[in-house]
Amino acid sequence: MLVLKAEDVRVPADVLPEARDNYIDNYLAATRGTGRLMLYACDQKIEHMNDDFFGKGIDPADNNPQHLFEIGSQGVVGVLAGQKGLIARYAPDYPNINYLVKMNSKTNLVSTDQDDPYSPQLYSLESVLAMLEAGVNIVGVGYTIYLGSEYESTMMAEAGELITEAHAAGLIVVLWIYPRGKSVPDEKDAQLIAGAAGVALCLGADFVKVNPPKASDEQSSAQLLACAAEAAGRTGLVCAGGSTTDAKHFLNQLYEQIHIGGAIGNATGRNIHQRSLAEAVRLTKAISAITLGDYDAEEALDVFEGREDFKL
Question: Fewer CB atoms inside 10 A, N or C side of the chain?
Fold first, then answer.
């Protein structure tokens, strides 16, 4: 089991002295005391609307938003990431979950052919801090930037200001960064993803969520990811989980992303919540066994298939 002590947490210089202990507590809570992030992504109800929650191959329970929180409560996750309103409606019934508030979102109704993507901030940090003061277990905030969009400068400015204010309050920040727009011919180009990781570092993020790069003829996706992880420096890089796939394949891919690609955890949504409650809970434990417990992929598959349990 990985163990990160409070004195070993690297505290950014933009964290105010009076917020230093809060930042350390939030970092350790988000990473469950390991330094690795298991981010349970529940922000797709705006991003992909209902397509990710109802339809062929999706468990019927997923259409009810409470399903997300039942999984987060019964499973093993680092943080549940979602929009402020979603968290506000359900957090009082699930106080044991660590929450990360997603500060911006957009739907997928406007295609890149119509307009370059822009995802504006939806609410103020002050409103999030008010929820924290009211007792909601918020440990951080998140923001998406679409690099290559004609609106990237606006999103970077919003993200930069958000990070400054969040760190001053002792919150951690995760950036979702995706190269996307009419000027981006290949969103999963390895060099572009490494560039996105470097942007996250320069903006001051604690973690950055990127898409895994597409494999080349010479190197696997995980091997190419290593360049991005190095470019991220002291910003921890995690990969998006993507659409639902076979659990064995997913766990092998995650293990390689961490142990070959240098990822500092994972960010998984659909692969978890589109399953039944029992199966989704087992998958959170299997993912966390790799991410937080440093299990290998075969041991994690045993957790998923119920031959072994995983608890922190």
Answer: N
DSSP, collapsed to helix, strand or coil, labels residue 68 as helix
Task: Map tokens 């597409």 to a residue.
Answer: 214
Question: In angstroms, rounded to a whole number, what is the distance separating the alpha carbons of residues 303 and 287?
Answer: 9
> Which residues are CB-contacts of 147 (< 8 A; sequence separation ≥ 6)?
177, 178, 179, 180, 184, 192, 195, 196, 199
| Catalytic member of 27, 143, 178, 295 | 178
Q: Which of 104, 197, 90 is nearest to 147 (CA)?
A: 197
Provide the 8-state DSSP code for 17.
G
143 is annotated as an active-site residue: no
Nearest one of 161, 181, 291 to 236, comparing CA atoms: 291
Residue 229, both tokens:
């992880």
Please give the single-letter amino acid code of residue 114. Answer: Q
Sequence-separated (6 or more) residues with CB below 8 Å from residue 108: 47, 48, 49
Q: Could you tell me the pTM of the whole model? A: 0.97
Catalytic position from the list 45, 84, 102, 209:
209
- Per-residue HEC secondary structure of 227-296 comes to HHHHHCCCCEEEEECCCCCCHHHHHHHHHHHHHCCCCCEEEECHHHHCCCHHHHHHHHHHHHHHHCCCCC
Is 118 catalytic? The answer is no
